[in-house]
Amino acid sequence: MASSSDVVKKVARYKLQLTDTAESATVVKILQKLKDLDITFDILAETGIGKAVNAFRRHKQGGELAKSLVRGWKDLVPKESTSHTENGICESLPVRTHQMRPSSKQVVKKLIQRNNARENKDLE
User: Fold this and answer.
1) pTM for the full model?
2) What is the largest CA-CA distance in the chain?
3) Residue 100 lies in a domain
4) How do residues 70-123 score in pLDDT, each as one tens digit?
5) DSSP for 32-44?
6) CB hemisphere CA count around 72 (13 angstroms)
7) Which terminal Cβ of the chain has fewer Cβ within 10 Å, N or C?
8) Contacts of 100 (CB under 8 A, 6+ apart)
9) Where is this region: Disordered (predicted)?
10) CA distance 11 to 50
11) Which helix (H) or strand (E) holds 51?
12) Strand, helix or coil at 68?
């Protein structure tokens, strides 16, 4: 079995080849090689290969294979993580990865809350 760093190197090389090629046969060959690799969530996060492969979902010859790969990789992404509060109650929290960003609505809401808190503090 190849080490994780070997797989990362291969995936990075395949990603570069995918972005540099327009040949349908090459795209299909690379997607097939990716299918044969043991790719983990950490490798997906580190390399960004999921985004590169997802771009080929409408490719004439490789589209179905690209969709299949992405569907399989989505199963690797954790949906939720559990956290224990001070009183011992277990609650679910969303897992935050480097790709997840708060929506603009959430950012505005947070800014309004901070501003209101400052105003209330100034009134005291």
Assistant:
1) 0.60
2) 70
3) no
4) 999 998 888 764 444 555 555 554 555 445 566 777 777 777 888 788 777 776
5) HHHHHS---HHHH
6) 16
7) C
8) 94
9) 80-124
10) 10
11) helix 49-54
12) helix
Cα separation, 101 vs 28, in Å, equals 32
| 62 within 8 A of 24, measured Cβ to Cβ | yes
pLDDT, tens only, 35-74: 999 999 999 999 999 999 999 998 889 999 999 999 999 9
In a domain, 21, yes or no: yes
Task: Look up the domain containing 9 and give its range.
Answer: 4-74
Domain count, the chain: 1
Q: Which residues of 96-122 are buried (b: 16+ CB within 10 A; e: fewer)?
A: eeeeeeeeeeeeeeeeeeeeeeeeeee
Give the model's pLDDT for residue 116: 82
Q: Please name the residues in contact with 119: beta carbons below 8 A apart, sequence gap of 6 or more.
A: none
CATH code for position 31: 1.20.930.10
Residue 62 lies in a domain: yes
